[in-house]
Design brief:
Blueprint lengths: L3 E8 L6 H17 L4 E3 L10 H7 L7 H13 L2 E3 L3 E5 L2 E9 L5 E6 L5 E4 L2 E4 L11 E5 L2 E5 L8 H9 L2 E7 L6 H17 L2 E5 L16 E3 L5 E4 L5 E8 H10 L6
Parallel strand pairs: 1-2, 2-3, 10-11, 11-12
Antiparallel strand pairs: 1-15, 3-5, 4-5, 5-6, 7-8, 9-10, 12-13, 13-14
Helix pairs in contact: 1-3
Length: 264
């Protein structure tokens, strides 16, 4: 296996049809596996459009749920680590924006509930994620043969302390399912992904949905994979795309050794 792996992002276009979204995600994951991917990341809310009515309609209560079962089966079928973007998770009367992660045997190895919720008053965009979801409390982290992989979601990117916590807990790679919009995306998305990779010297995979101008919330797209030197290894545009890149963990250790940022 060595100290390298091929990672992929599936930037899919999300529709109002949950079954169709799962079917299309399956096609893109198959394509990623054909390119050798061993770790695949899906976008935030890959099962439904980013709107309250769809969150309520598509919410699942794992281990029950169509998307949850599909993620497990897909990871097992392709024998890869699958970061299931995020989906609305229902626990009693409470909803969370949650990323579920499965290993190559289809076993759940992490559940990360978005900690920083998207509450903004921007020109032409007011959004209150806290009116829909409750924030999570625990960091997202899971073991792999290449080292620990962290998970964060979208608005979390603006809070460096969350990523410092992941680095201190041993993360060498961090997956960030996200859905930046046409206001914040062009201004901040790539900047934030590269900054967090540089801050903590790990590989960062920013996974976004493809753009759909007919959606109630139009996403920016532009998924990207960034190395510990903040170099962009792969970048998508607005359309559907499978991104792949080789992550070299020996290179990561060399960067950390040559430019030490941790306290002595």
């Amino acid at each position: 296996m060595g100290n390298k792996l091929i990672a992929a992002i599936c930037q899919l276009r999300v529709s109002a049809d949950k079954k169709a979204n799962l079917s299309r995600a399956a096609e893109l994951i198959r394509h990623a596996r054909d390119e050798g991917a061993e770790l695949v990341v899906l976008p935030e809310m890959f099962v439904c459009p980013y709107a309250k009515q769809f969150f309520l309609l598509c919410a699942e209560s794992p281990p029950q749920g169509e998307a949850f079962s599909w993620l497990s089966a897909t990871a097992r079928e392709h024998k890869l680590y699958l970061v299931g973007g995020s989906l609305p998770e229902r626990e009693g009367e409470v909803l969370y924006n949650t990323a579920f992660v499965f290993d190559p045997q289809g076993e759940l190895v992490a559940r990360y509930r978005k900690r920083r919720l998207f509450d903004v008053d921007l020109p032409h965009l007011r959004y209150r994620e806290s009116e829909i979801f409750r924030p999570g409390q625990e960091p997202g982290l899971f073991p792999t043969p290449w080292g620990k992989v962290g998970v964060a979601i979208c608005f979390d990117l603006r809070f460096p302390a969350l990523f410092q916590e992941l680095a201190q807990r041993g993360a060498k790679i961090v997956a960030v399912p996200a859905a930046y919009n046409l206001i914040t995306g062009p201004a901040h998305w790539e900047l934030l992904v590269r900054a967090r990779a540089l801050d903590q010297q790990f590989y960062l995979l920013g996974a976004a949905p493809a753009r759909d101008y007919s959606a109630p919330y139009v996403t920016f797209g532009h998924s990207l994979i960034v190395d510990p030197w903040a170099k962009v290894l792969a970048r998508a545009g607005a359309e559907e795309r499978v991104l792949t890149a080789t992550l070299d963990l020996d290179y990561l250790e060399r960067v950390r050794l040559e430019l030490p940022l941790s306290a002595p």
